[in-house]
Write a structure and sequence with these properties.
The complex is a heterodimer of chains A (336) and B (242). By secondary structure, chain A is mostly helical. Chain A folds into two domains: 7-32 and 43-156, no CATH class; 159-336. Helices cover 82% and strands 0% of the residues of chain A. Chain A has helices spanning 11-27, 31-53, 57-88, 93-97, 99-124, 129-152, 158-169, 172-189, 195-213, 218-226, 231-257, 259-285, 288-308, 313-329. Chain B is built from ten helices and ten strands. The model of chain B has no long low-confidence stretch (mean pLDDT 92). Helix content of chain B is 40%, strand content 26%. The chains are: A mainly alpha (336), B alpha/beta (242). The interface between A and B is medium-sized, with 34 and 36 residues.
Chain lengths: 336, 242
Amino acid sequence: MVGEGAGPAARLFRYDRRIAANAARATFSGWHDRLIATTMLLFALAAARSWLLDRTWPIAAWTIFGAGVLIGLTAGRLIAVRLAFHAFHGPLAADALRPALRGHYLIAWFAIGLALLAIFTVIARPSLLIAILPGYLIGSFVGYVTGSLSIAGFGAGKAGFDRMFRSWIQRPGAGIVAAAILLLSLAVAAQYLRGDALVVVAGIETALSGFALTIVDDSSVRFQTIAGRGAWRIIGPQARGAMVFVGIAAPVCSFAFGVALAAVVAATSIATLLLMAMRTLAYRIHGKGFADFIVSILTGLLILTAFSMPILLPFVGIAILWQLQRRSAARTWLLA
Amino acid sequence: MNPIIDLTAVSIDRSGERVVRHVDLTVIEGSWFGLIGANGSGKTSLLRALAGRLPFASGSCRIDGVEMIADRLARATHFGFSPPADTLPDGLRGREVLELVGGDIETMWPCLGPLRKALGLDALLDRWIGDCSAGMRQRITIALAFAQGHTRVILDEPFNWLDPVAAFDLRQALRAMVNNGLTLMTALHDLGTLAVACDAGIMLAGGNVAMGLDSRLLETAAQDPQAFERQTIDRLRAASAP
């Protein structure tokens, strides 16, 4: 369908595929990189297979359906953003504006995602194919449509608001406000919920606050990298809001709601900070699309490690950060 | 004297704000049209909209006599355009990005004409874009605008980042190509290039046309660049005064 010699119809796809292939080649250039990646992949496949086979079919099916939706949402949004980039900034803007060529591009990337998920599911538990593929297709459609709509809304004043919001969430005040909201809402929820239910609510609220406080602007990271800022000097200011949040929320939760709930708040906050650090380091090395792809794989690996061998989690996390930092430190820029 | 681009009262919105207001301009085939103006005056938005990278909010955009105000695809197909240098992918080599856009490099060289030498492209073919300096990236983006053989080309501040020799060579090469039939539109900050190389132009200020620059005025400017610079700066100051 879309191959190397398929002519102008496939030019957009070939352009991005070449970028992805070169980036993958550069990322896994050394034998030890390939060894680590292969080991991680095999480990992740084995852990996923083990986890899915240990569950009853309905639970495994719903889980894999949800994973398919999430992966599809991410893929759909990435493709919408990338097409918008091509139409606005790219050297192949005319191709990106032509409906038939946009269609080729969409089908090619969605088909690759579909094929990879199918291979994964056949290895993990073939009977779940019936669950993951519809999930992926639904997610892809919703992700692409919502991604396209949000890009279209970008021209209606949303850009200014986004910049203002991103700037505000990095301030310590944002962390104080988020912690106050969490504590107040938990105080109200505690009137109606007890035990595990309250912990789950705290975990979800913390995750939402943590993600909001650790939004990463890839273009800002790229600019700061060009300007010669080191990785940790970029990550530090981005982490301020979330650090203040966990610094207030965890101790107060420990006192007011118990140690278990406080531990969940602290662990979830650290996870969002880790994710932010991984994204920032990846944006220093790669373009947004490929960086998000790499980070999503690494996040999946961390989740699997947390489920299967939690004791190894800190070591795997540190190893990932070290590897990303090692690569990002080599980025330099000549200004003239 | 065949006008191929005819904009009438075009306006452009970005991020909900009107950045270009009721601009009129006409570009003659086989000429070099320059846009000057302060930062944020709307030059880039106007060029991007003309090249189909942005929609026009209103007005009329006739190219070769055909109305294209609502047709971004037609405008994008019509013009060669240099993408911003910082958006080139780090993970491609110079040759790869040129070939992905323009096809086989050997068949592309005739489209580039004297630019091949002026931009020093041979030395950039095997270099990773991620390892290129800003000036090297700029050379590649200029080449990309010509890689598909367009004879109407839009360049946004092409002399940025270039060293003096490269800027001189590029100006000479572009002028030679215009003399051979190329129609070129460029945003510029260098008044000397505007006076010496361009055939016509406009000065934008706050999204409006602050001054038209016809061929006679530019010929006079080329004879007395200092007076032209003084006059232009005065106009820009007056236009940007609160």
